[in-house]
Amino acid sequence: MRKYLNTLFVTTQGAYLGKDGEAVAVRVEGETKLKLPAHTLDGVVCFGQVSVSPALMAHLAEGGASVSFLSERGRFLARVQGPVHGNVLLRREQYRRADDPGASVSMAQMALTGKLHNCRVGLRRSARDHPGRPEAASLAAAADALGRQLGRLPRVNDLEELRGLEGEAANTYFGAFGAMLLRSEPELAFRGRNRRPPLDPVNCLLSFLYTLLVHDVRSALESVGLDPQVGFLHRDRPGRPSLALDLMEEFRPVLADRLALTLLNRGTLGPRDFGTAATGAVTLTDGARKTVLTAWQERKRDEVEHPFLREKMAVGLLPFAQALLLARHLRGDLDGYPPYLWR
To answer: Is pLDDT of 42 > 70?
Structure first.
């Protein structure tokens, strides 16, 4: 259990949150592990088997704080808040900026800054980790190209041009993605990004991990009161969580792509873990899907230092921290949204 940006995250299974005077008391097996003044909290986020007393929920609601309940794996379940809350103002500001082309460009630039920077770091890490491989030169060249594309971002003031630059950067990145794979099996060769359906094992794995990631990011946005359907780079479309797709861009290379490479390069997954349907679509076997889900949850328990907050936190809480930062920016508490920049 940790507090970030005036939000208490409770991940300890079996924890019970009760009201202790004017404080929030977190108890585990009858022992008080943490006590915080309730007035210092904007929200409480509970993962899995975490209970909250009605008295505490009422007290927090009266003070304008919300309580969000998520599954242990981070799927949004419900949110408790009082009748008068600032979320309506937050969402109105989100909608205003989404309807303003200039504001949307500014928000989209921030999202793409994180994405291109992190893709570049991923390529450079692979080149550095395997300097003797002939692919190291192509990885370094792709990283340099992404650096030039990153430098062009501030000068692009049109959403369509931004999407064009994003597509160019994606081609650069995925054009070099295969060079980060260490396996020699032809079945695991990567010749470019494809989806709907994925036509090879690597794309199948990436698509599955992206699905897990967008679910986590969507839950993070809902937990802070933002509308995951209304984005800036990705525009409105029925059933599409556009803001979640915006926010997940900076996390694709850090969480999904890096995990896919780890699972394949270490031999955790191989050609036998994939099947091909009559339509040509490649899918994970049931056993492989469980392996990926386990690895995903283990990865989310790793600790990293957040580059903007300068605090250590579990990887699984990074989308929640970024959602909080985005909400603060929209409220006017931060001059700009600081994307998560991988180091």
So the answer is: yes
Residue with tokens 């160019």: 168
Structure tokens at 111: 């999202």
- Which domain, by its residues, includes 209? 91-331
Using the Cα atoms of residue 315, residue 320, residue 321 and residue 322 in order, give the sign of their dihedral.
positive
Taking alpha carbons only, the member of 288, 120, 266 closest to residue 201 is: 288
Residues 6+ apart with CB under 8 A from 273: 201, 284, 285, 287, 288, 291
- Per the rule left: phi > 0, alpha: psi between -120 and 50, beta: everything else, 29 is left
Whether 62 and 111 map to the same domain: the answer is no
Domain check: are 62 and 168 in the same one?
A: no
C-alpha–C-alpha distance, residues 75 and 235, integer Å: 23
Note the pLDDT tens digit of each residue in 156-198.
999 999 999 999 999 999 999 999 998 888 888 888 888 888 8
Burial class (CB in 10 A: 0-12, 13-18, 19+), 170: middle
Quote the number of domains for the chain. Answer: 2
Mean pLDDT estimate for the chain:
89
Query: Each residue of 258-312: pLDDT tens digit?
Result: 999 999 999 999 999 998 888 888 888 888 888 988 898 889 889 999 999 999 9
How far is 183 from 192, CA to CA, in rounded Å? 16
Closest alpha carbon to 104 in 296, 234, 290? 234
Cα distance between residue 288 and residue 274, in whole Å: 8
